Every structure is written in structure tokens, then in C-alpha cells.
Amino acid sequence: MTYAAPVEQIEFILSRVIAYSEVQETDRFAEATQDTTRAILAEAGKLAGQVLAPLNRSGDQVPARLENGRVRASPGYAEGFAAIAEGGWIGLAADPEYGGMGLPMTLNMAVAEMMSGACLALQLNPLLTQGQIEALEHHASEELKALYLPKLNSGEWSGTMNLTEPGAGSDVGALTTRAERHEDGTYRITGQKIFITWGDSDVTSNVCHAVLARLPDGARGTRGISLFMVPKFLPDDQGNPGVANSIKVVSLEEKMGIHGSPTCVMSYEGATGWLIGEEHKGMASMFTMMNCARLGVGVQGVGVAEAALQQAVAYAGERNQMGLIINHPDVRRMLATARAEVFAARSICLACASAIDMQRATGAAEHAARAAFLTPIAKAYGTDVGCRVADTGVQVHGGMGYIEETGAAQYLRDARITPIYEGTNGIQAMDLVGRKLADGGDAAMRLLDEILDNAKAANGAHHDLSERVWQAGETMREATLAMMERDLPERFGGAVPFLMAFARVLGAHYHLRAAMAGSAAHVALARVYISRVLPRYASDLAEARAGLEELTAISDAALAGDFSA
Amino acid sequence: MTYAAPVEQIEFILSRVIAYSEVQETDRFAEATQDTTRAILAEAGKLAGQVLAPLNRSGDQVPARLENGRVRASPGYAEGFAAIAEGGWIGLAADPEYGGMGLPMTLNMAVAEMMSGACLALQLNPLLTQGQIEALEHHASEELKALYLPKLNSGEWSGTMNLTEPGAGSDVGALTTRAERHEDGTYRITGQKIFITWGDSDVTSNVCHAVLARLPDGARGTRGISLFMVPKFLPDDQGNPGVANSIKVVSLEEKMGIHGSPTCVMSYEGATGWLIGEEHKGMASMFTMMNCARLGVGVQGVGVAEAALQQAVAYAGERNQMGLIINHPDVRRMLATARAEVFAARSICLACASAIDMQRATGAAEHAARAAFLTPIAKAYGTDVGCRVADTGVQVHGGMGYIEETGAAQYLRDARITPIYEGTNGIQAMDLVGRKLADGGDAAMRLLDEILDNAKAANGAHHDLSERVWQAGETMREATLAMMERDLPERFGGAVPFLMAFARVLGAHYHLRAAMAGSAAHVALARVYISRVLPRYASDLAEARAGLEELTAISDAALAGDFSA
């Protein structure tokens, strides 16, 4: 099965659905003309379809492995990574002063979607490297930037994020890794980190670890954490990989999917590190990495969904069981719903990326707030759609979907990590109803205003659709106001369904915009979304309204199955 | 992680929620007293928890394999199967004349749930053997019954179902396997079958294949198909396994899950077979096997859901991230919703089994219609809940859920086959809105009448809950009438969401009954279901109402991502 990068679908969303043209009109991103945009998407699409997609199955079948303390990547991955690096794709949105291309994050995310649809396990490496580049650009000293950024941007070296420890997952502040000041201005890092994606490999000549650790005088919790650059090989005087640092890859995890991505247990044993940013302020730098990565993970969901759906449609168009199954009403329902959800999730992710670009180009708080508000929705909805569509792909294949040979199951196994890493979708939802509503609902209301205004504008040609979107937007506004009247634990009990409802309303909004601007096929797809997917926002909100009290009324024993009390 | 069989939960449903007491009052099942019921559940629970559950991980890690043309089962599986056989569990509901115990199907399904929660891959063997026993009891000659049934009931031999061929999955009528009459009254069977669960193994001394094939004068389609008994070893004069039949195990499939269950490609090469039932009427016998197996697969979903949920609750009660995560509102929401869905799915399955028992005990058409109506709902909802709860289990584990070591991912991988085999859930839904409404909606309306009457009866103590169940039942009645006004293709376009809506209303009904009869914990759980899960029936029905026209308006090209037209 060949993956065909969805270049035209993305172009349409950029030019007709979201506010990417605003990004192009800024001074900062003036180079990102329509022609450049188109050329970049086409080029990345070629790379994804022709170079990366053929690596997807082999990485699943021949996982990365640990040999003599070093990770050997899956067959062909070194060549695949080299192709990504040589194309300049890693530094696409990075600062040109250090070898980046300075193009919009929107384009970068579009490219990321295509790469992850082609080969998720490999794409994780550039994704995390980009996160590190972001953190260094914003927080590192000039010296660190000059040394590391060019090599990260070029793909000569790769970057990792080291947050998690056995006792510190979602609770990052519980970490126990220690940092000690050394007289030469460097630090010594000691501790164990787990779930380190691409924590080691032979696809780059150095692996740069961004490691969270606590200095002796660091406060407990997240406020006493610092961030360090801890490279696998210490750079020599020429900035080339020199002496090996005191870092061990303890083991690789055996995972449900993304077998081609080595997930490492790392041990830092008095390893040499350099401070990134200020002492005790590591969480700020980490959040820079994580915000970018969160949107990137949402985009991964969209990428896998696109790939799984393409395969399912192709299969359904060939498989004959009392006629081609693509014509069976229920199979068509599954495929059409999936296609409509992929469009919605992609639009949300790209709209979020454009808000980031506008924030960077203008510095306006309004754009920053929009980006911050959309990020958890993009992450959670994008990854849920990733899993749901991959699941649909398996179902459409029938019994063949359960056989590994077809690859349908791999999409589901691969996608299943995305609602978990970079903050579980539950944490995204808590972020949305907590921090992201802490502005008094300002960002939410501005977004809803746009949705309502657009629905009014569409009221002529698409009366039936716009009416339903307008009603949903109005209900969502009331639900948002009601959510803000609750205390945090109450909000958290309804956070996930609230986020999902918001995502469906947003998805319907972008579908309506597509119907206004696009072809008859866009109108037909909008109709599917608005009549089949959007209505679920009402039951999401019913769940969001149901009280926390109801959940706490159930004992732990009853959850486990003991109803005697 | 230890699986604790949910004996008390099942007992409560049997004694207070569904109409099992009616079954116990019949002459046929008079032996199934409360004491016997309790003793059997306790004994089966012990077997499941102590003997079968320890085999679950090892079967995943060491799959069944093909050696010299014979299948070697996973380590310990032969002993596990022997324990099932020795306990008399295979023939629990079978005819005592041939070595069965003659107990209710309801009890059999309760036992099946516990065995599949403990070790799904192994439990498939007795499940399919029971399906074959059913088919033989109803359709086979006295000679075949006398020869095969005692050995199948005792677990000395096992049974398989051979329907699927490469070009004939859901479309069974497309099969090409040939049968030829032989002068001695036997038949010669030639053809290839795929997806044959437990198609061979070393856990029994013979494997009895029920094979669908077409005689030379058989009509095209399903009406020209006959069913044959084709044993691996031809029974000798004493009825012991003799000469090997001309059957080859071509290969085993590499699957997403249930690794311990050998899924075989079988080749029949002029193999000797005996006719089961009448020539050309094999589909009737096959449906007997399949109906039992369909409910059995729904029950498998419940079993895996229970096991996955137990593990998730245990993990959440130990995992500390800013307090035990079981106390985090969103984790509690996931666990409580899952527990409520497990209760609903289990009740639907056991109610379906009880209707089968009543049909057998009384012969009344009303019970037959009830069983037929509930079977597709039990299969589809049970298996969807199986996947959904296993998925929740992964999510609750966070990053650890993606690591194979914890076993959470295995539940999801194992459960994922259940919405596919024995007729995909899409086919179940088509059966529901097609054949099962062909009685003019009689069976549906009787069921809805019960739901409405019960809601009225509950109106005192549980006014808020009963009101919502009543309303949902009333809406479901209207939706059912509306469904019947459509032609078949229109029905099929909304079949799956219609089935899901019906399942949620049924689930709410059984929760309401539990709230009326049970402890405070049952009331609390009913509240979770009725306020968080039930409301989704409304959006299901919105989707069910959306027209087929909308789906056919989208071109195949647009489904694949090309919107140019």
C-alpha cells in the first residue's frame, strides 16, 4: 500500500479554510508565498511518499535494538533520517541565524503531518529535535546556541527530551535526578530517566539530551527544577563529538507499536551538562519544548489517520463481497465519517500552528492566547481521531485487518501512544478548562465569536448547515460560561468531554468554511460532519455537566467490582 | 496482576436484574437452583482465576506455532484445556443424553465470560467446540451424534467452524470449496479455508472440522451450501482417532493479538467428510453454530473488559502522581464509566442467554424472538465495550500502558478481534435493522414495553433516573418505528448507530433495575450510566436518522482525499 501525501488537501485548508494568508502577509513570513508554500508541500510530500513510507513496515518488523550499550536503528532508518536532514526539513521553522529556514510553523506542521503519516516511528526523531531547537532558541546562552543549533538544524545531531522518571510521569515535579555545580561552570547530572524517545541511535553522530534535574538548593516541586544540555559525546574544541559522556542506555522498552522508535531507559552517572536558561527555571524551557511537541503530536494523529484511511479506502474499493464493500452503506458511513474527522482535525491543528506564527510575527497577546487555547484541543482531538480512524481502518479490512501483514493493525498500534505521550489527553483537557480559561474565557469567547460570525455569513448558500453550526456555537458559549463557574476539581470531572465538544464545534466551523469556499465534494463532506459527528457535542456536554459528586459517590471497591457496600 | 472472576457481580445480575428466575422455574432447568447456580459460578471462577489467568501472558509471548505441519499450542495451554475439559465445562449446556450437563445457556455464558476474561486465546477453543456441539445436536444424524458428541462434550476432541475463504468472508455464499458424493455415503471435500480458529493443535487427540462446501448440484449463493463433519483423524471402529484425513495446515496467521489461539489456513485435499443435516441446507446448521458463537463473542468482550478494568483500577489505586490517580477526577470518570458499561453489557448478554433458555424450555415464539433480537446487540455492544474498556485500561496506565510488560496493551490487542469475527459489528447491526425488524417490530416493541413499564414502576424511589430511562425508551420506540419505514439500504446506512442507541437504552434499563434492587453502590453506578453514557443515544439516533443520500453524495475519490470534483 502506497501512502500519497495529502498535498492538495493541505493546500486547500491553508488557502481557503484557516487564516494562513494573514501569516503570509506579515513581514516575518513574507517569504512564505503561495508558490513557496506549494513547492515546499510538494517536495515534502515526495519525500514522505517515496522515501519514508517504505520504511514503515520494516521498522515495525525489525525494531530498534540495543547492542553493546548502543542503539541500532531499524534497517533503512539512517538513510531515511539523512534524507529528512538533507532536505533541510528539521530546521524548516528555525531561526535562520543558526541554520534554520525561518518559515512558518504552519508549514512545518504540514510537513510533519506528511512525515508522520509515512513513518511515525522515524518522524519522532525530527519532532523531538525540533522541540529542543525551540527551547535552545528561546532560553539558551549564545554560546550553547552557536554550538548546538547549527548541528541540530542540519540533522547532524539529534535532540531528546528527558522529563519522565519511574516515580515522576505526569507529576514532573516529583523527579529525583540531581544536578551539582562544577567549578568549571558545567554541572554533573545523576539519575535515571525513562520513556526517552530516540534516547540513543546510530542515525546521527551525537545525541543531545535536554535533561530536567534538581540542584541541591532547588525547591521541591516544579519550581526547583533546572534544564541541562547533556550530550552523548562532549563536543571538542572544534565542536565535533569528542569524549563519551557518562550516560548509559540501560534498556529499550518493548512497546505495543512505534517499534522503529527506540524508547530508552537512560542512566546519567555524573554526566557533564550545561545549563539551559536560568537555574531553577527549567520548567519554562521545558514548556517551550512541550508546547511545540504537543501540537506536533496532534499532527501525528492526523498523519496516521490519513495514512490508515487511504489504505482502508483502497481496500474497500477492491474487496468484493456482494459488490465492492466501498458501496456498502455501513462501510461508506465509516469511511465518510473518518474522512470528515481527518479534515476537521487537520484544520484545527493548522489553525493552531497559524496562531503560533501570528504570535511570533506580531507579538500580539491575542494570537498567543489563541495558540495556547487551541494547543490542547489540537493535541487531544488530533490523537483521538488518529486512533479512531486507525481503528476504523482495521474494521473496514474485516478479518484481514487483524492480520499484521496488511499493515492496518500497525497504524492502530502506532497511533495508540499519541493520546498518552506529551501529556495524556486527560491532562490536555485539564489544561484547557483550567489554565486556558484562566483569562476569564477571553480566548474561548473570541474563538466562539468567530464561529458565530462565520455561521451568520454562511447563512445564505448553506442555510441548513450554518444554522446547526450557529446553534452549536451558541450552546458551546453557554457551556463555557457554566464551566467557568465551577471550581477546578469540578471542572476536571468534565474536562475531557468538554474538550471533545469544543473540538467538534470547531471541526464543524472549519467544515462550514470549506463548504463556502470549496467544491461540491467539500459541501458533501461538511454535511456528513455536521449531521453525523457534530451532534455528539450535545452528549459530550451532557457528560461534562454531570457532576463530580456522582464520580466520588462510587467507592474504589465498587470500581473494582465489589458492590457489597 | 491477578484476575478475580466476578462471581458476585454475575450472581447479582442473575438474581435481581434479569429474568433468570423464570428460567429456573421451568421444568427443563429445574436443577439450576440458586445453590447449584452459585456453586457452579464459584467453581468456574476458581478455574478462571487460578488455572487460566496465569496462561494469558505466556500465550501472548509464546504464540502457537506450526511444526512439521502440526500446531503446537502455547506453553501450558494443553494443561489449561484439560482443566476446562475435566471440569465438565465444555458440555455445561449440552444434551445430557450425549454427556452434557443440560444446564442453562445463561450459566454457560456466565462461565464463558470468566474463562475469556482469564485467557481469551484459550477460551476460543471451548467456545467453538460448543458451537459445533449445538449444530450437531440440532442437525446431525443419530450416528454422527453418538460418535462425536460424547467426545466433544468431554473435551477429548475439539471442534472448529470452517466458513471463510479468501474470496468469501462476510459473503459466505461466494465460497468455492467443493464436496463430492462418494459411493460409501461419505463425501470428498476439496478447497481452502482461512481464519480457522484453533484449526489444529496438540491439546486434543482429534480436531473435528465443520466445513461448508458446495455439492456439484448445489445452487449458487448460500442456498447451495452443505455442511460436513471432516475430522483430522478418521474415527476407527472403536470410535478412536485412526487414519489421518487429507487435511493440511498450510500456515498460521501473524495477528495483532490472541497469539495463543492458532489461526489456520486449512487445505482440504479430497478429505473425507460426513454430511451434517441435509444436502444444500448447510447454512441453517451454520447459523445454529453462529448464533451461539455470536452471543459467546459478545460475552468475550465483557470478559476482557472486566479483566482490563480490574487491572486498571488496581494500577490507579497504587500509582501516585500528586495523590493516587484513582482520586483524580478524570481517571475516576474513565473508571466509573467503564464499570458502568461493563455492567450494562454483561446484563444484556445474560438477558439474551436467558431468552435462549426460555425458548428451549418453553418453545414459545416470543422467547425465540427476544433471543434473536438481543443477539446482535449483545455481540456488537459487548465487543465494543470490550475494546473501549481495554482502551481505557491502556490510557489509565499512561506510558506504562503502552509497554507490553504491564499486559494492559494485550487486552486491547486481544479484544480488537471481537468486533470483527463471527460477523462484523456492522453485519450485526444490519441483521438487527433488517431481519430482526422483519416481524413488524414486534420483538423490539415488547422489549421497549418492558423498559417503559419498569421505568414507571421505578418512578417512586428513583424518580430522576426512571424519568430519563422512560424518555429514552419512548424516543427509542419512535426511532424504531421510523427505521421500519425505510427501505433496507437506507436502514443499513444508520444501522450501527441505531444498534448502539438501543444498547444504551437497554443498558440504562438494567442499571435502573439494579438501582431498584441493589445496594447504594448500584444506585451510584446507575447514576453514572444514566447521566454520562445513556445521553449518547440521542447523538447515535441523530446519526441513524442522517440519510444514506448524504453518504452516496461523496465520491470514492473524495473518500480517498481527492476533492477536485
Textual characterization of the structure:
2 copies of one chain form a homodimer. By secondary structure, chain A is of the alpha+beta class. Chain A has helices at residues 7-17, 20-24, 34-52, 56-61, 77-86, 105-139, 142-154, 282-316, 329-362, 365-396, 408-415, 425-433, 442-457, 463-484, 488-493, 495-517, 520-533, 536-545, 548-552, 556-560; strands at residues 65-67, 70-72, 157-162, 178-181, 187-197, 206-214, 225-231, 233-235, 241-244, 247-252, 263-276. The longest helix of chain A is centred in the first third of the chain and has 35 residues, at 105-139. In chain A, helix 1 crosses helix 16 and helix 9 crosses helix 16 (495-517). In chain A, strands 3, 4, 5, 6, 7, 10 and 11 form a 7-stranded mixed β-sheet that branches. A two-stranded antiparallel sheet of chain A has the order 1-2. Among the domains of chain A are: 158-280, Butyryl-CoA Dehydrogenase, subunit A, domain 2, CATH 2.40.110.20; 425-553, Four Helix Bundle (Hemerythrin (Met), subunit A), CATH 1.20.120. The N and C termini of chain A lie far apart (55 Å). Chains A and B meet through helix 1, helix 8, helix 9, helix 10 and helix 11 of A and helix 1, helix 8, helix 9, helix 10 and helix 11 of B.
Annotate the secondary structure layout:
2 copies of one chain form a homodimer.
Chain A: H1 7-17, H2 20-24, H3 34-52, H4 56-61, E1 65-67, E2 70-72, H5 77-86, H6 105-139, H7 142-154, E3 157-162, E4 178-181, E5 187-197, E6 206-214, E7 225-231, E8 233-235, E9 241-244, E10 247-252, E11 263-276, H8 282-316, H9 329-362, H10 365-396, H11 408-415, H12 425-433, H13 442-457, H14 463-484, H15 488-493, H16 495-517, H17 520-533, H18 536-545, H19 548-552, H20 556-560
Parallel strand pairs in A: 3-6
Antiparallel strand pairs in A: 1-2, 4-5, 5-11, 6-7, 7-11, 8-9, 10-11
